[in-house]
């Protein structure tokens, strides 16, 4: 029996050795293998150098027109799924897209910078982006989805007189307790569910501390968001470049440890805010939209029909005329 | 690099003499060398696990087994783990025993973006007290995903990264585990078992989303 075991072991080992020696062996940390190169690694990508970092950024339209700054979700997402908003350029707007620091194709940063400075990092970056593009007297509207709408509000809360309008789509909340409530409804864990299974099973195959591995793993686990039974109302994937895993983890940790309240100066914001929620997001709904949007003094609340949380992608046909009507009042 | 990889694969395959079940060495009988065990619990997913093992009386008792772990969920066979391995009682003093387990494993994972086929190796050591009625032991283990084949879907290439490279990636991860296991003999042979503990990713890697494991089992020799 012992000899049989040894024989079997040797046969399996030999077969495995032949198999692997015939294949290319790849290293997951290598740039460009599993996730795309960032602006730091690929200088051909469009970028701007602001506030001590290098951001992946693009603009559409006449730079002298009223500016729309598009803010993607996450934290840790990117603007690829929001590119349909470039259509506002044909309506007489100057549309600015950028991947937030550490996200998408923007330069990566280690988490110590987020851990020490928290929300001031993306707020200061947004300020720097606006300053980079803004001409004297140019109107600026912020258009944010999910986390992007929270970031827009954090910015407005600090500088309520700097912005001329805001389109906010399903921000989790403007305080940590409101956000936490939303997250609990969205991420209710049923360990017998395929959605959870898809997210946790991979932990035994891929572990990492390097950005590339973590970003790749976050992208793979992100597919669970639109798995059958998801509460966000997503019926398929949305395009993305790279998940900024380090930023996502540190932002959540920071919020958990320090909490936040972006509502302290919102009453000073004079323009009407267009606040949208989707028809299919079971975790959001009108009641949460009313709760969150009540922090602003003037709100136009809209339900975007036929879509889930990815409003600017899956719900574009419904969202576009609503947003354009609002933008024309700000112009 | 390639030599190192081949050596790791051989090491993983050579570990094929081990693993599988929670064995109480005091109730092991060579006239009933076979054993089936059913576990339910959480092990990087809510899982159902079925094991078959057979005991051999070599210079000391060795238990060789095959273990299958299936996560629950609407798609039953898109993800699973197979383990082939063995365990041996390496030392004994009065009622105390030290056990060494080794196994090679094969994991499959699939979602909308990727299919992963992963070969790995697991090693663990247990020290505990074993009686004919019960046993309890502390367990320390390490599980390395040595080589993983990533095959990406059209969805990944269209919605994610078009330049993503399919192939064998080495290595992709590793996790330590620390915990306890215990068992109570029922009747003359059957046993209910409990394993619980936590996992800790290697080096400074980020830990699993739920870094714990829990298995309730029922074993029946025949």
Give a short overview.
Chain A has helices spanning 2-21, 112-117, 120-133, 147-158, 176-186, 194-200, 211-222, 245-258, 285-293, 311-314, 316-330, and strands spanning 25-26, 47-50, 53-60, 67-71, 94-98, 140-145, 165-169, 273-278, 299-304. Chain A has 331 residues and is an alpha/beta fold.
What does it look like?
The complex is a heterodimer of chains A (331) and B (222). Chain A contains eleven helices and nine strands. The model of chain A has no long low-confidence stretch (mean pLDDT 92). With 331 residues, chain A is α/β, with parallel strands linked by helices. Chain A has an eight-stranded mixed sheet with strand order 2-3-5-4-6-7-8-9, with helices on both faces. Chain A has one domain (47-190, 222-330): Alpha/Beta hydrolase fold, catalytic domain (Rossmann fold, 3-Layer(aba) Sandwich). By secondary structure, chain B is mostly beta strands. Chain B has a ten-stranded antiparallel beta barrel with strand order 1-2-3-4-5-6-7-9-10-11. The longest helix of chain B is centred in the first third of the chain and has 13 residues, at 2-14. Chains A and B meet through helix 1, strand 1, helix 6 and helix 7 of A and helix 1, strand 5, strand 6, strand 7 and helix 2 of B. Strand 1 of chain A pairs parallel with strand 8 (167-169) of chain B, so a sheet runs across the interface.
SSE sequence of chain B, one letter per element: HEEEEEEEHEEEE
Low-pLDDT windows of residues of chain A: none
DSSP strand count of chain A = 9
- Any idea what the CATH superfamily of chain A is called? Alpha/Beta hydrolase fold, catalytic domain
End-to-end distance of chain B, in Å?
Answer: 46 Å
What structural category characterises the helix and strand content of chain B? mainly beta
Radius of gyration of chain A, taken over Cα atoms and rounded to an integer in Å? 22 Å
Number of strands of chain B: 11
Classify the helix fraction of chain A into a percent range: 25-40%
Give a quick account of the main beta sheet of chain B: strands, pairing sense, barrel closure: 10 strands, antiparallel, barrel
Show the largest interface.
A-B, 57 and 65 residues
DSSP summary: helix tally of chain B: 2
At the first level of CATH, what is the class of chain B? Mainly Beta
Q: Whole-number average pLDDT of chain A?
A: 92
**Global Rg of chain B:** 18 Å
- Under CATH at level 1, the class of chain A stands as Alpha Beta
């Amino acid at each position: 029996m012992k000899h049989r075991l040894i024989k079997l072991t040797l046969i399996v080992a030999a077969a495995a050795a032949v198999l692997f020696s015939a294949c290319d062996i790849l290293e997951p940390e290598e740039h460009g293998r599993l996730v795309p190169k960032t602006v730091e690694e690929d200088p051909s990508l469009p970028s701007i150098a602001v506030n001590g970092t290098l951001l992946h950024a693009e603009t559409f339209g006449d730079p002298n027109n009223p500016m729309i700054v598009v803010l993607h979700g996450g934290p840790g997402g990117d603007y690829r799924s929001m590119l349909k908003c470039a259509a506002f350029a044909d309506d007489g707007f100057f549309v600015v897209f950028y991947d937030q620091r550490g996200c998408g194709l923007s330069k990566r940063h280690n988490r110590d910078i987020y851990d020490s400075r928290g929300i001031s990092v993306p707020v200061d970056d947004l300020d720097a982006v606006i300053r980079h593009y803004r001409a004297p007297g140019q109107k600026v509207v912020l258009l944010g989805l999910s986390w992007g709408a929270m970031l827009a509000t954090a910015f407005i809360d600090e500088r309520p007189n700097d912005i001329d309008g805001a389109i906010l789509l399903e921000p989790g909340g403007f305080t940590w307790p409101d956000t936490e409530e939303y997250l609990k409804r969205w991420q209710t864990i049923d360990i017998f569910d395929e959605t959870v299974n898809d997210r946790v099973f991979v932990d035994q195959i891929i572990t990492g501390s390097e950005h590339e591995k973590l970003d790749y793993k976050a992208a793979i686990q992100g597919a669970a968001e639109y798995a059958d039974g998801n509460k966000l109302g997503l019926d398929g994937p949305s395009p993305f470049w790279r998940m900024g895993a380090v930023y996502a983890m540190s932002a959540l940790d920071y919020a958990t440890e320090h909490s936040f309240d972006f509502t302290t100066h919102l009453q000073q914001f004079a323009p009407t805010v267009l606040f949208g929620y989707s028809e299919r997001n079971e975790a959001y709904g009108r009641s949460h939209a009313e709760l969150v949007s009540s922090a602003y003094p003037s709100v136009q609340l809209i339900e975007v029909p036929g879509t889930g949380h990815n409003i600017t992608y899956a719900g574009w046909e419904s969202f576009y005329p609503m947003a354009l009507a609002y933008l024309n009042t700000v112009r | 690099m390639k030599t190192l990889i081949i050596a790791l694969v051989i090491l993983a395959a050579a570990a094929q003499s081990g693993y599988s079940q929670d064995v109480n060495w005091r109730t092991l009988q060579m006239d009933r060398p076979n054993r089936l065990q059913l576990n339910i619990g959480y092990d990087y997913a809510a899982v159902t696990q079925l094991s078959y093992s057979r005991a051999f009386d070599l210079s000391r008792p060795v238990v060789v087994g095959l273990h299958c772990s299936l996560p629950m969920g609407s798609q039953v066979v898109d993800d699973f783990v197979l383990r082939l391995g063995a365990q041996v009682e390496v030392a004994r003093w009065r009622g105390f025993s030290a056990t060494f387990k080794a196994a090679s494993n094969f994991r499959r994972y699939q979602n909308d973006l990727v299919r992963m086929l992963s070969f790995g190796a697991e090693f663990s050591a247990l020290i505990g007290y074993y009686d004919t009625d019960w046993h309890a032991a502390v367990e320390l283990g390490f599980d390395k995903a040595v080589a993983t084949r990533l095959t990406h879907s059209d969805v990944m290439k269209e919605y994610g990264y078009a330049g993503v490279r399919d192939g064998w990636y080495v290595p992709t991860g590793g996790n330590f585990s620390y915990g306890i296991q215990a068992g109570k003999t029922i009747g003359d042979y059957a046993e209910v078992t409990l394993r619980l503990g936590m996992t800790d990713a290697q080096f400074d890697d980020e830990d699993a989303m739920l870094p714990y494991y829990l298995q309730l089992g029922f074993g029946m020799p025949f």
